[in-house]
Amino acid sequence: MKGQEWYQTDEVAEAYDAKRFSNGGRLIDRTEKGAVLDALSPVEGRRILEIACGTGRFSVALAERGADVVGLDISGPMLRQGHDKAVSAGVRDDADFLRGDAGRLPFPDDHFDAVLAMRFFHLVDDPAGFLAEIERVSRHQVVFDTFDRPSLRTLYTWALPMGSRLYGRSEVRELLADADLDLAGVDHEFLFPYGFYRQIPARLADWTWTVDESLRGAPGVDRLATVSFWDCRVGD
């Protein structure tokens, strides 16, 4: 998987949230959390696995709403951030953080009600294999996002520290079919890419988001959205 070494450093883990979710990045955080909670709700009492949980922002948000969450990541420093976040939020008993490889999940079949994988598929070398493994441990639902083409993200993805795999929508649908996952819903968001929003102040980002939403409402324009949120059901 791309970025394994990069995410292992204490410096990256400690600066991760501040770098991505301050200023205009706050809007990204709100939008992503909203998409996750809309897809997974109601979460109370559900057993949920978050793959590539990073600093635990989704795991903690789900635990705060009554879910029993396991956050799995390959980076020890990122997991420590998630653990500290859970302690601060008072949900340490409802959010466990484990170090592990998403390609070989240490859980039996059908172990979770739902599996979440955000900011993950753009890094994987074998999306079909990872999706099959994710489907294996879920008995009901799989939620994930992709960075998409064609989109403005194409203009700068080559400059990112570990690159970024971009997906066409037909490609994702083929992956879902191969993994025996049924598409329940999909939202296509952000004409302007994340990197742009992170560079501008929060108030300007909110105004830009209004323009973004308006443009995406025009016929055919949402095909240029940079991010898609996929909500899937495990087949019989």
From TrEMBL:
Read off the Gene3D superfamilies from this record: Vaccinia Virus protein VP39
The Methyltransferase type domain, residue ranges: 49-140
Keyword S-adenosyl-L-methionine assigned to the entry: answer is no
Keywords in alphabetical order, please: Methyltransferase, Transferase
Signal peptide as annotated in the record: none
Extract one GO BP annotation from the record: methylation
Question: A Gene Ontology MF term for this entry?
Answer: S-adenosylmethionine-dependent methyltransferase activity
The record's annotation in InterPro entries points to:
Methyltransf_11 (IPR013216), SAM-dependent_MTases_sf (IPR029063)
UniProt-recorded name of the protein: SAM-dependent methyltransferase
